Amino acid sequence: MLSREEYKKLDKDPTNIIAQNIKTLMEKNNIPSKTKSTLKPTYPLPPKLYGLPKVQTKHPTDTDC
After folding, report:
1. Phi–psi pair at 18, nearest 5 degrees
2. What residue spans of 1-65 are helical by DSSP H?
3. Per-residue pLDDT tens for 6-63?
4. How would you label 16-45 residue by residue, b for 16+ Cβ within 10 Å and e otherwise?
5. What is the structure's pLDDT at 65?
6. Which one of 6, 10, 32, 59 is separated from 47 by 20 to 30 angstroms, measured CA to CA?
7. pLDDT for 64
8. Could you tell me which residues come within 8 angstroms of residue 13 by beta carbon, excluding any fewer than 6 positions away?
9. Which residues contact 18 (CB under 8 A, 6 or more apart)?
10. Residues 6+ away with beta carbon under 8 Å from 16
11. Whole-angstrom Cα distance, residue 13 to residue 15?
12. What are the two backbone dihedrals, phi and then psi, of residue 60, each rounded to the nearest 5 degrees?
């Protein structure tokens, strides 16, 4: 799934740059402070990608004959 073109490996985490851009845009525009507080990221973290291996187990009634 990760080999598809929609995904690419980044050299560094862009989360802080994106959060700074959001903050700058909100300061430049006339957005009410109450709305700013709900839109502003407080502790920005990149999403985590995880997976579990697919393990094949035998049913207890199966025999190895």
Report:
1. -65, -40
2. 15-28, 33-39
3. 888 889 988 889 888 988 888 888 888 888 888 877 888 888 878 887 887 777 665 5
4. eeebeeeeeebeeeeeeeeeeeeeeeeeee
5. 53
6. 32
7. 56
8. 46
9. 44
10. 44
11. 6
12. -55, -25
Has this prediction a pTM greater than 0.70?
A: no
Residue 61 is predicted with a pLDDT of 67
pLDDT the model gives residue 62: 57
Report residue 8 as tokens.
Answer: 């690419």
Sign of CA dihedral 29, 35, 37, 43: negative
Using only C-alpha atoms, the chain has a radius of gyration, in whole angstroms, of 23
> Side chain identity at 28, as an amino acid letter?
K
